[in-house]
Design brief:
With 163 residues, this protein is mainly α. It has a domain of 100 residues. Helices cover 81% and strands 0% of the residues.
Length: 163
């Protein structure tokens, strides 16, 4: 087969495009998942868990701890979205099976879009996967940062009253 064969060139272009898309998704999910996990770490330590204990916790343990602290917010859809992002992150980090990665991404996208109004979901449903992953993780991070801020505010108010 000659290098300039049109079908060969088409297949090379398809493989290159798939790799570029996967690289963008990989970077997006790894960075944004890590950011969300850092926010979870802050929330957990704000609630009194030592950094030593925190270092030994797996992501799933951190999620459970956050949900435990989030009284009244433990059934919010953001937990399921964060779990889907974690599944996607783990699949990307440990697997090259494109179909499996696509299924995990579809699950994350479905859960994330389900939280939106139909109009808002329609605006972003055709955005690239790396954008959807970034938005999903950022939204979850914002949710947990809000929980953290409320705890810190209550702690500050409590210590002001004690004085």
């Amino acid at each position: 087969m000659k290098f300039d064969d049109p079908e060969f060139q088409q297949r090379i272009a398809e493989a290159r495009q798939r790799a570029e898309n996967m690289n963008a998704l990989t970077l997006s999910i790894l960075r944004n998942h890590l950011e969300a996990e850092q926010i979870m770490n802050d929330y957990i330590t704000t609630n009194g868990v030592s950094k030593r204990k925190l270092r030994r916790m797996k992501f799933s343990d951190k999620m459970e701890k956050c949900k435990l602290f989030a009284k009244g917010e433990e059934n919010e859809p953001w937990w399921g979205i964060l779990n889907a992002a974690n599944s996607l992150r783990n699949t990307i980090a440990h697997n090259l099976d494109a179909d499996k990665i696509d299924r995990r991404m579809a699950d994350l996208k479905e859960k994330y879009l389900a939280t939106m109004t139909w109009e808002n979901a329609a605006l972003i449903e055709n955005e690239p996967d790396d954008y959807i992953a970034m938005m999903a993780c950022s939204t979850c991070g914002g949710f947990i940062a809000t929980l953290d801020s409320r705890v810190k505010g209550a702690q500050a108010a409590s210590s002001s009253e004690a004085e």
